[in-house]
From TrEMBL:
Pathway: Porphyrin-containing compound metabolism; protoporphyrin-IX biosynthesis; coproporphyrinogen-III from 5-aminolevulinate: step 1/4. Zn(2+) binds at residues 120, 122, 130. GO terms for cellular component: cytosol. NCBIfam families: PRK09283.1. Homooctamer. PANTHER family: DELTA-AMINOLEVULINIC ACID DEHYDRATASE (PTHR11458:SF0). This is Delta-aminolevulinic acid dehydratase. The keyword Zinc applies. The keyword Magnesium applies. SMART domains: ALAD (SM01004). Belongs to the ALAD family. Keywords: Heme biosynthesis, Lyase, Magnesium, Metal-binding, Porphyrin biosynthesis, Zinc.
Amino acid sequence: MQFPVTRLRRLRKNAAIRNMVRETILTRNDLIMPLFVCPGEGVENKISSMPGNSQFSVDLLVKKCRELYNKGVQSVLLFGIPETKDETGDVACQHNGIVQQAVRALKKEVPELYLIADVCNCEYTTHGHCGTIVDGDVDNDLTLDTLARQSVSLAEAGVDMVAPSDMMDGRVGAIRTALDENGFKNTPIMAYSAKYASAFYGPFREAAESAPQFGDRKTYQMDPANGDEALREVELDIQEGADIVMVKPALNYMDVIQSVKANFNVPVAAYNVSGEFSMVKAAAEKGWIDEKRIVLELLTGLKRAGADIIISYHTQDIIEEL
């Protein structure tokens, strides 16, 4: 039927009818809040390029997480800033690593909160790359050992899920095997399956103190021009045992999110990254946009594209609106 028999505005007349026919509904269950944990006690280092975000020592991280949980945040993604770094990231595998300490404290003090730990080496290496350097580049297979041991150590600390973000070939399989062999068959893996070599990570590298000291990450993170390659990466990660696959960044890659969701029958996560977050904050501080409306529209768009899970620094600002 065509106009005037069909009038689509009938379904937009008021809030009640709009709510009834809404196709995409964003809820607090969809959101994960990323957080940064650092050494010390009583430490809160504000992140200048990410307003409202800080590095927290374990004691203040516990306080922050309790506040977030009471607001309705059900899950957090943890990144660590260690006291010392090394050439291979082995410090991230230690029993008393900074994230391991945080996990144990949070499981004791905020046991209902679902804890996900990022698994990578860039925050823990002196050179800032995501693995062991051989002849000026990251050696893929040597790095798998560190990632697997880091994942087991985090599982031993009590983390609910591990999330490898390094983009090494074969790392999901190596982590799945290590977890299973050490009695953690029920620990899920959320793989950063399609992680692009993006310019949107700048503020995060300040937050995590993880900027590479030489070169870039283009030999292991994906070319932003490629979409089909993302499907190959996702398929391999699923075959190796990934329970959830992720696309990172989110906004410039909504087509990839949609393709992944259409092609694979697994939960899909989207990481609304630091640069995307900071641009919204900067425009809001200038008074150029309505921040809450923009954020709700942005996050709803990611869900409409196919994301089941959204990792976003906006979570703490928007959770009570949901």
